[in-house]
Design goal:
globular, alpha/beta, homooctamer, 5 strands
Chain lengths: ~150, ~150, ~150, ~150, ~150, ~150, ~150, ~150
C-alpha cells in the first residue's frame, strides 16, 4: 500500500520538509502547491502576458496554480492542511473543503490558538495534529501499524 | 426554473436579508447556516451533553451544524459565500471549496481589500460581487434575462 | 428545507414512534424498514414460494427487504441508526456503513455500554445520541436553529 | 488481471494468514486493518495526546484507523469480511455496508450459526464462504478459471 | 414513499396491465417503453426520413426509443424486466444490465424454463418472480409491509 | 413522465418558439440560455462593473451566463442543440459536448450542409433533425408513443 | 496509450483467439469471462458446496462469475460483445447494457441475421463488426491511426 | 507527479509537435486524436464496409474516432484545445465541453481574433494561451514551479 499525500497550506515555515524527511522510510508520495511565493503570485502574467489590473493579474495566476492543486488533491489519499500563525490562509481552508467534498482523508495541522475558528474544518478531518512529527507518526501507523515510542 | 441558493459565510451584517428581500419577486429559494452565533457554538453540548474540554465542545457543535450545511450546499444550484471584514472565516472558505468540488456555481461576495488573499477562491467562482445588490442582479438576470437600470 | 430521515436498526422498542411523535411540528419525512419481525423474515417465501433450506428462505426475504432499505437510505438526508441492548444487529451496522459511503449525515443512537464496540461506527457519524429525544432536538435545531430548554 | 483484496473483520484467529498463504501463487494483493488490537485501540492518544474521557480516546483512534480502512476498501476489487464467534463486530458489518455501497464485490466468511443474523449482509454479497480455503478457491477460479480437486 | 417503477421487456402479453391494475391502491408510478411494436420499429424513419438500408432504418428508431428507455430506467427505483417465451429479447437483457450498473433494484419476471439461460441476469436481481401477481405483492410489501393471504 | 428540455444554440431564428409552440400539448418543460444577444454579451459589466479590456468584459459575461447554462443542461433530460447558418457557434458545440459527457439525450438540429463538420457532434446524439417540427415529433413520440401523420 | 479490452459473449467459437492473435503487435490487454462452460456452470457448488435445487446451483455459480465479469468490464476501455448463432445469450446482452451504463466504448460483433433483434444493443455501440478481423482493425486504427490494406 | 495531456483540435499546423518537443524534459505524456485527415474521415468504411450515403459514411468513422477521443480525454489531467484560423472546428469545441463537464483542467489555445466567439469556452478554462510555447511554459511551471526567462 502506497499512500499519496497532498500537503496544502502555509508556505512560510519548513513543516513540509519536516514531514517529508520524517517519512523517508515510508511508502508514501508527496505533492504540494508551488511554494515559491513570488512565482505563485506571478505565474499567470509571466507566462500569459501582463495585466494592468491587479485583480486579473491575480486571477491568471490563481487559475494556473489550480491546475496543480486540483491534480494534487484529486490524486491524493490523504490531504494534510497546515494553518500557520499569519495571513488569512483562505486557500488552505478552500483546499480542505474541496478535499472533504471528494471524500479524501483529511489531517489538519495547527496550533491550539486556532481551535475555535477552525472547528468546522477540524470537524471534517480524521485527525488534528499540532506538530509535523505527529503527521509522520500517523502515516507510519496507517501504513505499518507501529506506534511511536 | 427555480434557483436554489445557499448563503454561506459572514453572520455579523445583514447581507442575507438584503439579498432575500431584493430577490422577493424571483423564483428562488434560500438556505443558510444557523446565524445565531451563540446557538451555533453551543448546539452540541446543549443537546448531547456538556464537555469539560472546549475542543470537544466545539467538535460536537460543528458536527451538528454540518448536517445543515451539507444539506444546504448539496441541494443548491448556486452557493453565495460572503467574506466580511473581521475574523478568520475559515468555515466560509471551507464551504466555498466544498461547493467547488461538487461543481456548484459559486458567487463570492467581498470588498476589494480581500482581493489578493481570496484570489484562489475567486478563481473558482463564476462571479465576484462587491455588494449584495449585485448578487440579486445576477440572480434576476440568470432567471429572467433582465439587466439592471 | 425538508429533511428526509431514515430510521434504521433496532425494532423491539418504540424509539421510532418517540422520534416521529416528537418531530410532528418539524418539516421532516420519515422512512424505515418493515418493523414487523415475522413479515420481514418471511416475505420472500410468502411471495415467491417456500424454500426447504432456511438459508435460501432468509436470502429471498433479505433481498426483498433490500428494495425498501436501499430506497430509504439513498433518498435520505439523515440516517439515524439505533443499536439496542440485544441481538447482533449486524444489519444496523451494515446500513450505517452503506449510508456513510454515500455521504449521508449519520446520527447513531445507543447506550454508553456500547461505546467501545461502536467506536468505528460513531467515528463516521455527525452525532451520537443516547435518547430519541436528543435526535428530535438535533432535527429541530438543524431545521429551525432553536435549542432545547 | 490483478485482484486487489481487502480482508476486513475478525482479528483473533489466523484466517488472514490462511488466505494469504493459500493465495501465494495468485495474482493478488492484500490489505487489511491494523490487527494489533492494542495499537488499534490506542493509536489516537499515543500519537495525538491522551484523553481523560474514554469516549474521545476511542474516537481519536477510530478516526485514524479510518484512514487505513477507507483507503483499503476504496482501492479493493474484492472485500472479504470475516465474522467470528465472539464480540459485536459492528465494524465488520459497517465495512461490509461501506463496500456494498461502493459496488465492491463482497465475500462474507462465517459459520452457519450466524446465517440468520447475517442474512442482510450475505444478501449483498457475491459469495458466502465457511472456510478461508474456500475464499482462496474463489480467488483462484476468478483469476485462472480452475476449480479445486 | 413513492416507488417509481420501470417495466421493461416482453410486449406481447398483458403482464404490464396486470401489474398496473394490481397496484392501483399503491403509491407507485409506472413507466415503460413504447409497446406498439410497429411504431417502435418505424419511429426513426417516420419522423426523420426514410432509409433504404434496413440497418439504418433500425438504428434511427432504436436511438429515438433510447431517449425514453434511458429516462425511464434512470428515473426508476425499481426496474422490472419480463422475459417471455418468444424472440431473442436482447433489449430486455440489455436494459437489465443497464439498470444493474446504475444500482437500481431489479425484479426479473420469467418462467422456470428460462432459469438457466437467465442465471447471470437473475443473479443481479433482488427478486425473481414467475407471475405478475408476485411483482404486485412485492411492491405492496415494500411499500406497506403487508404480505399476501 | 415529464421531459425537461434544454434548447441550446442559435439565437437568430425562431426555432425555439416553433418547438415550444408545437409542444404545447405535451408534458414538457423548456429552458434555454438568455437569447437577448446584447444582454448576454454585456451582463457581466452591467452588473459587476465595466472592464477596459474587451477580453475581461467577455469573461465576466460568459461566466454569469454559465450559471444559467449549467443549471439548464444539468437539469435536463434532453438537450436540443441547433446549429444555424452563420457564426462560429462554438458555444453550441461546447454545450453539446458538456451534455454528452453528462449522459444527456442529445438531439442535434441543423441543415444538411453542416453534416460533415458536425459529424462528431451528431455521432454523440440520439437524433439528428432538420426541422424544429421533427424535434416536436420526437418529443411527442417519446412521451406518448404516437407518430406523425 | 494502452487499451484495456474486455471480450464478452459467445464461448463456442474461437473469435477471442482470433482477436488476441491479430492484436499481438498492439498495445492492448485482454480480459474475458471464464470460457470453460462446465467450470463456469459449476464453480459455485464446486467451491461452496452442492445445492439440491438447480436454481440455487446456478445462482451460486453466476455470482462467483460476476466477480470476474464486473472487474473485467469496470476496468475496460473497450468492451467487445459477440453474439453467435445459438443460445439465448442473455448474459452477453446484459454485459452490453452494464458496459453502456458505465460509459464504456462498445463494439458489437454479430452476423447480419441478428441485426433486427440486436438493434437496441447496436444503437448503444460505437461500432458493429461482422468479423473478428474487423475488431482487430478497429483497435489498430484507434491505437496507431493506420487503416487496413 | 506525471501530467497526462490530451491535445485536441486543429490538425493543419504543427502546434502539437511544438508542444511535445518543448516538453521533452518534463514528466508528461501526450495523447491526441488521429491527425491524418483522410484516415480519420474514412476509417469507418475502410474497416466496416462502404456506405452509399455520405451521412452514414461519416457516422461510422466519427464513432470509431470517438473510441480514441473519449479514452484520451477521460484519462487526461489537462486537455489542451487548439482553435485555428479555418474550418468550423465544432469537434474541438465539443471536446472542450466534454472535458469541462468531466472536471478536467482546460487550456485553450487560439489567436485574439477568436476571443469573442470563444468566450464561453475560454470561461470554462484555467488558461487561454496564444502560442504553443506558452502551453509548454504552463506545463513546466505546474510540474516544476519554474517560470520562463
Amino acid at each position: 500500500m502506497t499512500l499519496k499525500i497532498y500537503l496544502s497550506g502555509e508556505i512560510h515555515t519548513d513543516w513540509r520538509e519536516q514531514i517529508i524527511e520524517g517519512a523517508q522510510a515510508l511508502d508514501v508520495t508527496f505533492n504540494s502547491p508551488v511554494t515559491d511565493h513570488g512565482a505563485s503570485d506571478d505565474c499567470g502574467v509571466a507566462i500569459l502576458g501582463a495585466e494592468p489590473d491587479k485583480y486579473w493579474h491575480d486571477r491568471k495566476g490563481a487559475q494556473i496554480n489550480a491546475i496543480r492543486t486540483r491534480k494534487g488533491i484529486e490524486g491524493a489519499d490523504v490531504v494534510v492542511v497546515r494553518f500557520g500563525e499569519q495571513y488569512k490562509q483562505w486557500n488552505a481552508a478552500f483546499d480542505a473543503g474541496y478535499a472533504a467534498a471528494l471524500g479524501k482523508s483529511l489531517i489538519i495541522l495547527h496550533g491550539a490558538e486556532h481551535d475555535h475558528p477552525l472547528k468546522e474544518v477540524d470537524a471534517a478531518a480524521l485527525a488534528v495534529a499540532r506538530e509535523p512529527r505527529q503527521v509522520v507518526e500517523i502515516l507510519r501507523y496507517v501504513l505499518n501499524g507501529t506506534l511511536p515510542g
